[in-house]
Automatic annotation (TrEMBL):
Subcellular location: Cell membrane
Membrane-spanning residues: 12-35, 42-61, 67-84, 105-122, 134-153, 160-177, 183-200
UniProt cross-references to Pfam families, sorted A to Z: NMN_transporter
Name of the protein in its database record: Nicotinamide mononucleotide transporter family protein
Source organism of this protein record: Kitasatospora putterlickiae
Main localization category: membrane
Keyword Aminoacyl-tRNA synthetase: no
Membrane topology value: Multi-pass membrane protein
Keywords: Cell membrane, Membrane, Transmembrane, Transmembrane helix, Transport
Family per record: Belongs to the nicotinamide ribonucleoside (NR) uptake permease (TC 4.B.1) family.
InterPro entries, A to Z: NMN_transpt_PnuC
Amino acid sequence: MSALEWLNDQFSFFGIPVYWSDFLGNILALATVWLALRRSLVAWPVQILGSVLLLIASLNVHLGGNAARQVVIIASASWGWATWRRSRQQEGTINVRWASWRERAVLIAVMAVGTFAFAAVLKANDASFYPGAPWWMVLADAWIFVGSILAMYTQARRYVEFWFVWLAVDLVGVPLAIHSELYFSGIVYGIFFVMVLIGIRDWASRSKGQEIASPLEPAVVVEGRTDATTTTTGS
């Protein structure tokens, strides 16, 4: 049996049929969120590996939007990794901040336009669920894709809003995963929900005392203070 065949095999997880690719990919996804909470550079390579496994799982159940999402996440994670490394070199740590109102407006506009546009592409090519799938299902699949891209971008930019975007993705991801019989993904999305709430509180607290930087510049810590509690271990 090849590695790909094994990853597409199912096993019983407390009576629930789970694909190995779905299981292992989501274990790494959970690790990614925990590492992001700690602002560790290791979060990015772990995310890349987890996305490769989830790409295999999505293709196995014909989720075109979710599969495309994993491809973009892999590419975006490489950029995010480089961004965080540069931030640590320049600032000595990974500082976080709230986005400006202008930045938030842009994110919301991209969220709305991007979701409908990508849903139209999926619908036209019957690339989501099954031919003739209802619009609400295709829109949900498209939002998982677009929302994940925005989450990756806001994470790389170190915006506190990163966690709110993931929260919106999770609210759609749980029923979508269960409907697609990716049951373990549904369970993990539920765990993500709790971790995201913790992340919002942690990053919001860390953002206090930091000035709003321009979109093209790293965040600035006022009064010469830096966060000496970083647990970054990546290279």
